[in-house]
Design a protein that fits this description.
heterodimer, A: mainly alpha, 12 helices, B: mainly alpha, two-stranded antiparallel sheet, 1% strand, globular
Chain lengths: 267, 294
């Protein structure tokens, strides 16, 4: 090891500060979910679980959760199909404009959300003249979820190579059999990880949603945003926030187990 | 090696297979590409192009309807109104500050994860860095709002001398929210780097600082560039966190989101500023190999 003991200690301390920076605000949110003070006084004057009971019965939060699940599932399904197809094309074929496709897939997530939001809103209202619905939300979300599945599948295809598929074809398997028994089992982990990450991205999205949602549909982020500044609702928002923080560990952990390269694949 | 395979049959079969693939290959590529490209080119690029076109439209000041007639009046407004330049420059400054803070915090953390930590701890740390990314965006902005609140923790620690909601709180909050987007590419960059380079550098007499400057930085630069695409793009597109912790501060996306209600074509014109900025940035970054690190 080229680092002196002192250098290692310095790096350890800096890394610890970085981690503390990441978790301090989240800890505050979880703590405030039990804060008796409605304005989240610090230090808390007392602790209570009453906000949790109120939040569990909140109709707006429940509707938001259902709308977010619908949008997330729809967008993930579309992203899985489109992302996998694009990844196969780029990894298994050589053709003119291949690098342009990678660029094009990254673009919806690389461009600021507000640009995508305004562009889709304009297309829906001024060009296509269609009304906003859960489907316009799904279309918006799917557009930037494709890249997540694409990156996951592409990384896996690159690593596995095509020799097993060639062997399968040489042994007389049909294209479908090769896909069903050779390619798909190799991809399963990457597909699941990609789906989880895409769903998470959709579930949390607010900027594009804000421009493509009808007045009567509120996803969970839209509901949170709408209630954030209402003093009576703030403790309930805080409980929902605390739940979201704790639940967030699950998909990350699963995705990490499924792929060695999950680290680089959030994007 | 006398027992050669029954060559005739086998090669005949293989020839058949590859002939089959050769004839259908183009077709299959076409079928694979058609749906994703239709979506990305027609739905996405189509919308972007339509937005570009709509930037040349105007709004009838009387009926508030969009007039589909070519006019450069929006561009004239954006280029001559000093407010737009001021806000664009402010947004750029905030994006730079946020990116700089993120690099400074992410670099030692990623270095620790990849080089110093044990394998077990490393995997735990990757999960630890990714988890906040999954906690809702609004929750995080809201968390900083409560942290910076007058009777919140920071006010309590500083005895009421914490910063008011404004540029400083905004920079901290945005840097916080985009930090994992910087840590992960840098970490991946370290992971790709052969660790023997560190030993070689040390064996050749370089100290830790020199090794970082001469070996580590040049090699992880594409990773830092990849992370900066996110910190830049996300800052340029943010108006919600700005509203939550930024006080009266306005960034370019706030202007767009306000314009869109009354004057959608003007909003489209202003939206071209972050669009062009990011596309130029992407094209520049492409040369550094950053896009492969995204």
């Amino acid at each position: 090891m080229f680092l002196t003991a002192r250098a290692r200690m310095a790096i350890r301390i800096l890394a610890f500060i970085g981690l503390a920076f990441l978790y301090l605000p989240l800890g505050i949110v979880v703590m405030n979910a039990f804060n008796t003070s409605q304005t989240f006084e610090f230090p808390p004057p007392g602790f209570t679980t009453k906000w949790w009971n109120i939040a569990a019965d909140d109709q707006g939060a429940r509707d938001g959760l259902i709308a977010s699940l619908k949008a997330g599932l729809g967008a993930t399904a579309i992203a899985l199909v489109l992302g996998t197809m694009a990844a196969f094309a780029v990894q298994r074929y050589k053709f003119f404009g291949r690098s342009t496709i990678s660029f094009l897939v990254v673009l919806p997530i690389a461009l600021p959300g507000i640009v995508t939001g305004i562009a889709l809103k304009n297309a829906f209202t001024e060009v296509l003249a269609i009304d906003f619905s859960i489907w316009t939300i799904i279309i918006g979300h799917a557009t930037f979820c494709v890249v997540i599945v694409f990156n996951n599948v592409q990384a896996r295809l690159r690593r596995t190579g095509s020799s097993l598929e060639q062997a399968s074809a040489d042994l007389g398997a049909t294209g479908w059999q090769t896909f069903r028994y050779v390619t798909f089992p190799q991809l399963r982990g990457a597909l699941l990880a990609g789906a989880l990450l895409a769903f998470g991205l959709s579930f949390d999205e607010i900027v594009v949603t804000n421009f493509t949602a009808p007045a009567d549909v509120q996803t969970l982020p839209l509901w949170i945003f709408g209630n954030l500044f209402r003093p009576n609702q703030a403790p309930i928002v805080n409980v929902v926030a605390a739940v979201l923080i704790v639940v967030a560990v699950v998909p990350v952990w699963i995705a990490q187990k499924l792929t060695d390269d999950a680290a680089g694949s959030r994007f | 090696m006398s027992d050669a395979p029954p060559a005739g049959r086998k090669t005949g079969r293989r020839g058949g297979v590859s002939a089959f693939f050769a004839s259908k290959r183009r077709l299959r590529l076409g079928l694979l590409l058609a749906p994703p490209m239709t979506w990305l080119v027609v739905v996405y690029l189509g919308s972007i192009v339509a937005m570009f076109v709509s930037a040349f439209w105007t709004v009838d000041s009387f009926t508030e309807n969009v007039v589909h007639q070519f006019s450069t009046v929006n561009f004239h407004t954006v280029f001559t109104e000093p407010l737009y330049r001021k806000i664009a420059l402010r947004t750029l400054g905030i994006a730079l500050a946020v990116t700089a803070i993120d690099v400074l915090v992410a670099f030692p953390l990623a270095f620790y994860m990849s080089v110093v930590a044990s394998r077990r701890l490393r995997n735990l740390l990757v999960v630890a860095v990714l988890t906040p990314l999954w906690a809702s965006y609004l929750v995080k902005a809201f968390a900083w709002r409560t942290l910076f609140a007058p009777d919140g923790p920071i006010g309590w620690v500083t005895g009421g001398h914490g910063p008011d909601y404004g540029k400083a709180t905004l920079v901290v909050t945005l840097a916080y929210m985009w930090l994992p987007y910087m840590v992960i590419p840098i970490y991946a960059g370290f992971e790709r780097m052969p660790k023997s380079l560190f030993e070689a550098s040390a064996d050749l007499g370089a100290g830790a600082v020199r090794t970082v400057r001469a070996i580590v930085l040049p090699l992880v630069f594409p990773a830092i560039a990849a992370g900066s695409i996110f910190t830049f793009s996300l800052t340029l597109g943010d108006y919600i966190a700005v509203g939550i912790v930024g006080g009266k501060t306005q960034l370019i996306a706030n202007v767009i989101s306000e314009d869109v209600v009354l004057n959608q074509p003007l909003a489209a014109t202003v939206a071209l500023i972050p669009l062009v900025a990011i596309v130029l940035y992407l094209v520049a970054m492409r040369r550094t190999g950053a896009l492969e690190n995204v």
